[in-house]
Write a structure and sequence with these properties.
The chain is mostly helical. Helix content is 54%, strand content 7%. The chain has 2 domains: 4-177 and 294-324, HUPs (Rossmann fold), CATH 3.40.50; 212-289, Tyrosyl-Transfer RNA Synthetase, CATH 1.10.240. Bound molecules: tryptophanyl-5'AMP.
């Protein structure tokens, strides 16, 4: 039996190379080795206000990008979260067994709500319970994510174990898969901050659909330091970040990359990095143009996928109802 993989991505905001290297790239490699379910999490997106027409469009954009990046409908399922109502139902049930204290420890809520905590939606606070329900609904063994989701995965494991203890063996307890390289891509403008969809700076992130000249401009503006040598040194976050991105795109070792840049300057590093990113994204952008030109085909692919996973979710819910004495 193949192991089941599940992962999700929010449709809103522009997809950046952090999303790509931290998550999407892992999703598309070795698809044949696992049973893969990928989800565009629109219910997570509405934890902050969304314009309905934009949300709808961004779901298609995301689907087009993921197929273009290499999600193969023959080997993987890609569906939209809200098409399967069981996600919301299980989230409610998990809410009822999750202590407030566990949820209050989630650092991502604190970061996202910021100082305006009182105005943040209850949904934003409760986001991790919905994420746990996404994962637990499908008897997931492995969850490929960037490092920022590690705490949410630990919470998911805790919730699954607590449920299993209280009601008997029901959920598979999942494990995260976090890439060794580029698990946390940092902002180009500020390498002490994670590259993020919601960061407003014009030179903060390279987006997957950026044109070559925009990519070059952004990489050229990236913050480095006043030293000269080009080495993987975590204490020099700017250069370290650029080298990690280079490594993730090329697949070369640290030693090979350091040897390649020996005696060269930051100008060379930036120029070559921009080229590597441009060439890495080029085939994806070309395929994306074809997918997005046919929205009906995208919608059909997403709907077929939802039909494939619905029985798995329904079987889990049946088990949960029985165990809890519901209905
Ligand atoms: P989202 O949409 O914020 O991000 C999608 C994926 O991209 C990764 N990522 C990064 N990786 C490296 N460097 C970065 N700077 C960077 N920024 C983002 C994220 O870790 C993620 O893997 N909560 C999830 C969506 C979700 C989910 C799930 C994931 C909902 N349900 C179930 C796994 C399983 C999120 O906000 O992703």
């Amino acid at each position: 039996m193949k192991k089941r993989i599940f992962s999700g991505i929010q449709p809103t905001g522009k997809v950046h190379i952090g999303n790509y290297l931290g998550a999407i790239k892992q999703w598309v490699t070795n698809q044949g080795d696992h049973d893969n379910i990928y989800c565009i999490v629109d219910l997570h997106a509405i934890t902050v206000p969304q314009d309905p027409a934009e949300l709808k469009a961004s779901i298609r954009t995301m689907a087009g990008l993921l197929f273009a990046a290499g999600i193969d409908p023959e080997q993987s399922v890609l569906f939209v979260q809200s098409a399967i109502p069981a996600h919301s139902e299980l989230a409610w049930i998990l809410n009822c067994i999750t202590p407030m204290g566990w949820m209050e420890r989630m650092t991502q809520f604190k970061e996202k709500a910021g100082k305006d905590r009182e105005r943040a939606s209850v949904g934003l606070f409760d986001y991790p319970a919905l994420m746990a329900s996404d994962i637990l609904l499908y008897d997931t063994h492995l969850v490929p994510v960037g490092e920022d989701q590690k705490q949410h995965l630990e919470l998911t494991r805790d919730i699954a174990q607590r449920f299993n203890r209280q009601y008997g063996e029901t959920f598979v307890v999942p494990e995260p898969i976090i890439p060794k390289i580029a698990a946390r891509v940092m902002g180009l403008d500020d390498p002490t901050k994670k590259m993020s969809k919601s960061e407003p700076g014009k030179f903060h992130a390279v987006y997957m659909l950026d044109t070559p000249d925009v990519i070059l401009k952004k990489v050229k503006r990236a913050t480095t330091d006043s030293l000269r040598d080009i080495r993987f040194d975590e204490n020099r976050p700017g250069v370290f970040n650029l080298l990690s991105i280079y490594q993730a795109f090329t697949g070369e070792t640290e030693a090979e990359i350091e040897a390649h840049f020996a005696g060269k300057g930051y100008g060379d590093l930036k120029k070559e990095l921009a080229e590597v990113i441009i060439e890495g994204l080029r085939p994806i952008q070309e395929r994306y143009a074809k997918f997005i030109a046919d929205p009906a085909q995208l919608d059909a692919l997403l709907a077929q996928s939802a039909d494939k996973v619905r029985p798995i979710a329904e079987a889990t819910m049946k088990r949960v109802h029985q165990r809890m004495g519901l209905g």
